[in-house]
Specification:
The complex is a heterodimer of chains A (463) and B (379). Chain A is an alpha+beta fold and 463 residues long. Helices cover 17% and strands 16% of the residues of chain A. Chain A contains 9 helices and 8 strands. In chain A, strands 4-1-3-2-8-5-7-6 form an 8-stranded antiparallel sheet. Chain B is elongated, with a radius of gyration of 26 Å. The two termini of chain B are 32 Å apart. The chains are: A alpha+beta (463), B alpha+beta (379).
């Protein structure tokens, strides 16, 4: 099976089926228009937490637009998150299997599923042959788990072959298994030093980071996503059971994608803002070839990396108690969007492209707003766009009794330096940095896909 | 993977059907009783089958699907209550199949044989291990423990003597030798009944924890020896330990080994080691839990030695068991310091810790089938 036969995302462009019934299309938003909601008119500038908020608040902005009376324009030209369809399916019951075989790993393009687990492992396999056994074992388990089926009976010769967590027959529940490799796998243990992907380095801390070495890096990264928590847990137990000697988990985080609230919008993060609104179009093959997939014959890259995708994981604590004590306008200026609607501060629909050229001093969208720094929407920065896949996490409490919640930020790209690192560098010192704390994660290369039943993850890397 | 439809057509007598619910039995129902075992049935072709085995008798029974030529078991349902049913699944390959029913107070009944022709692979049948088969291994293991208890008593005598003499430095050395001797016996899950709590008990579950006056045994001594407690206070603890190991030795000749336990212990010893030793939980000051794991490996290997004649031919994974236990043992040895001193589990380097945990986990996976294979069965 090739990627041509694998569905990318369940929804197609232009599908409006998931737009909330009865929502109002404002229709009046003009490209380049600047919103100046009446609530802002005449309001006094709110000082930034550290006086970083350079932008004005829209007061006095010219070209006031007719307000969106009585409702929201949830979408403009882009469809609502295709993932919403999957989210609805997951909430309603069981998702169909996601075909495992293909040119690319199947878990990269789909929108976030309801549940995910990201687990880093260090390889403990004995030598190169042991490492091959490990990658074969992961592949075999992933092939079964994503397809579902009845685990083999073991007769009187062994304990049950399956944990039984999903009942006697394993349901696929949309499970995807995504495997990546970290730079440390390419040391002298397995003879892979000459095969290290050119763009794969350790993740070094950015100035606003507070990385915990125990939750950073890893020889391998495994992401398991599915419609339900039990499906993810079952898959993790199964894979771990079959790979005990070959790899050892070093850190793990579980995440969840919230339903879009209101329906028809985009899921929110723990700051209350919609996250992942502006993403490359995964149905646009050319865009994926430009932004996501490592291309064949890329200068400096070993041939085996073609069809892979650089996979960045960032574990980002959100200081939500602090955040909740911040004025809404300051919040919105830090993000650059309206909290309630997800609209850019200069527009009247979620997917509108902010017109920064018409707002050079940041009167509508402050110059240091998160969305403006992350994606300045210029021709020069277009190639730094990344495919973001964010999940919320909830790990209980911290030492002072505050909630330990935040974001499992994952993104895929063709080149970490050109993309993630460029974006993250632009974000250094952003006002939002005071409310978040990146504490872990790592850089990985998601392996090329598994072509068929005789192929396995990492085959070309290990050949 | 073949996932054949459930096509086992079964002819069932009206009387058996009447025992089921009013809706009638599922098509693949196998009804058993103390008067008949499976009735007439057939297998259309190789593939996966799930039978619903229904007990029409008035008492609980066991149903096996066997190769009638040698009694090897493909699948079994144990403890099937009267009037209940249970699924029995297997991948049917070419071979001979018959149900065999075991009810108390009745001779085993073997039903008609069904032959699947050809050369299709399927779930393997395993020759059951009987109680008779296990007497020899149990006797050998009993003798191993008896010899070990003699060593243990002498080691604890020496330990107690050092403490009485106020020689706490030598006492620490003696403590480790004595404790490892005990851990080599393969004690796990009350193998020695109440003695284990007295000799090697943890303070967990005692009010006051490490300060509880009811805490006694090796770990209590370890805590005292490595936390600056005086010889006078510890002498009493040591004397109690000495009394207890002597009492255990005295009771051992009349102690019977539960035949079921021999197989269970093969993974339970290391399950305990993973939970309490590799985790560092049972480090009460000496930092020698990795030495304890090595001692536990020795105990496990002794069980494998006595069971090996039964496992050869029944368990294809036996070489992997040996490989991974050896690997774990080697890794533990490599983790010792340059002077041979033990590294506390909490101070292992991350790489060393991962290697050791991984090897222990894999060894446990490889060991797990042994308990199932060596469970004593009636034939």
């Amino acid at each position: 099976m090739t990627e041509d036969t694998r569905p990318a995302e369940p929804a197609e462009p232009g599908n409006s089926g998931s737009v909330q019934s009865g929502s109002v299309q404002s229709g009046s938003v003009q490209s380049g228009s600047v919103q100046s909601g009446s609530v802002q008119s005449g309001s006094v500038g709110v000082p930034g937490r550290r006086a970083f908020l350079l932008g004005g608040l829209g007061a006095g902005a010219a070209g006031a637009v007719a307000g969106v009376a009585g409702g929201y324009a949830y979408r403009a030209t882009r469809p609502t998150s295709a993932g919403q369809v999957a989210l609805d399916n997951a909430a309603a019951g069981l998702l169909p299997p996601v075909p495992f075989h293909g040119k690319y790993q199947a878990g990269i393009l789909p929108a976030p599923q309801r549940q995910t687990a990201v687990i880093a492992f260090n390889a403990t396999a004995d030598g190169h042959a042991g490492l091959v056994d490990l990658f074969r074992a992961i592949t075999t388990r992933a092939r079964f788990l994503t397809a579902g089926g009845t685990p083999p009976p073991t007769g009187i010769g062994a304990p049950p072959s399956d944990s039984g967590v999903l009942g006697p027959t394993v349901v696929p529940d949309g499970l995807t298994v995504t495997l990546g490799v970290g730079s440390t796998l390419f040391d002298d243990r397995y003879g892979l030093a000459g095969r290290r992907p050119a763009g794969l380095t350790p993740m070094l801390p950015f100035p606003d980071d507070d990385l915990d070495p125990a939750q950073t890096g890893g020889d391998l990264i495994l992401q398991l996503s599915a419609g339900n928590t039990d499906t993810v847990m079952h898959a993790l137990r199964d894979i771990a059971k079959h790979t005990r000697g070959g790899m050892q988990a070093t850190w793990r985080i579980d995440g969840f994608a919230s339903p879009a609230r209101p329906a028809g919008t985009v899921p929110r993060n723990m700051l209350g803002f919609m996250d992942g609104i502006s993403n490359p179009d995964v149905t646009d093959r050319a865009e994926m070839d430009t932004l996501v997939w490592v291309q064949p014959d890329t200068a400096g890259e070993p041939a085996w990396t073609a069809g892979g995708s650089y996979f960045v994981v960032r574990l980002i604590r959100m200081l939500v108690e602090f955040w909740d004590r911040v004025d809404i306008f300051e919040q919105e200026n830090m993000i650059g969007r309206r909290r309630a609607t997800g609209f850019p501060l200069d527009a009247n629909s979620i997917f509108a492209t902010p017109a920064y050229a018409l707002d050079p001093t940041g009167e509508a969208v402050p110059l240091n707003a998160h969305i403006r720094l992350a994606n300045p929407r210029t021709p020069q920065t277009a190639s730094s766009r990344i495919l973001r896949r964010g999940y919320n996490y909830d790990r209980g409490l911290d030492q002072v009794g505050d909630l330990d919640v935040g974001l499992v930020f994952t993104c895929f790209q063709q080149d970490i330096k050109r993309q993630f690192e460029a974006v993250q560098t632009r974000l250094i010192g952003e006002p939002l940095a005071d409310y978040i704390s990146p504490f872990g994660g790592g850089y990985f290369l998601a392996l090329p896909g598994v072509a068929d039943g005789s192929d396995y993850l990492g085959r070309a890397m290990l050949a | 993977m073949r996932r054949a439809a459930l096509t086992a057509a079964l002819a069932l007598s009206a009387g058996l059907l009447a025992a089921c619910s009013g809706n009638g039995p599922p098509a693949n129902l196998i009804s058993v009783s103390n008067g008949g075992c499976g009735g007439s049935w057939h297998l259309a072709h190789p593939g996966w089958y799930t039978f619903q085995v229904y007990n029409a008798a008035g008492e609980s029974g066991e149903v096996d699907l066997v190769d009638p030529a040698n009694g090897a078991i493909y699948a079994e349902v144990e403890g099937l209550g009267p009037g209940t049913s249970s699924p029995m699944s297997l991948d049917v390959g070419s071979g001979s199949y018959a149900f065999r029913c075991l009810f108390d107070d009745f001779d085993p009944i073997t039903g008609p044989t069904v032959v699947v022709a050809g050369h299709a692979p399927g779930s393997p049948a395993i020759l059951p291990v009987t109680s008779n088969d296990l007497y020899g291994p149990a006797k050998q293991y009993h003798a191993y423990v008896a010899a070990g208890l003699n060593t243990l008593v002498s080691h604890v005598d020496a330990l107690a003597a050092e403490i009485r003499a106020g020689q706490l430095g030598p006492a620490r050395t003696a403590w480790l030798a004595a404790h490892l001797t005990y851990e080599r016996l393969g004690a796990a899950y009350d193998a020695f009944g109440d003695f284990d709590q007295e000799i090697d008990g943890r303070p967990d579950g005692l009010a006051g924890g490490v300060n509880s006056s009811r805490w006694t045994g090796f770990y209590r001594l370890e805590y005292g020896l490595w936390h600056g407690q005086g010889a006078a206070a510890l002498a009493t603890v040591a004397a109690t330990l000495d009394d207890n190991v002597r009492a255990l030795r005295a009771s051992w000749p009349s102690t019977e080994i539960n035949l079921l336990d021999i197989g269970l212990r093969t993974h339970e010893i290391l399950e305990n080691a993973l939970q309490f030793q590799l985790s560092g939980h049972d480090d009460y000051g000496s930092g020698t839990t990795l030495a304890t794991v090595q001692a536990n490996i020795t105990g496990t290997q002794e069980l494998l030695t006595v069971l090996r004649p039964l496992l050869t031919g029944r368990y294809a994974g036996l070489p992997a068991v040996d490989t991974w236990l050896d690997r774990l043992n080697t890794l533990l040895g490599q983790a010792r310091g340059p002077g041979g001193q033990w590294t506390p589990a909490a101070r292992l380097s991350p790489a060393s810790r991962e290697q050791i945990d991984a090897a222990c986990g894999q060894a446990l996976e490889e060991l797990a089938p042994i308990a199932a294979i060596t469970e004593p069965r009636i034939t």
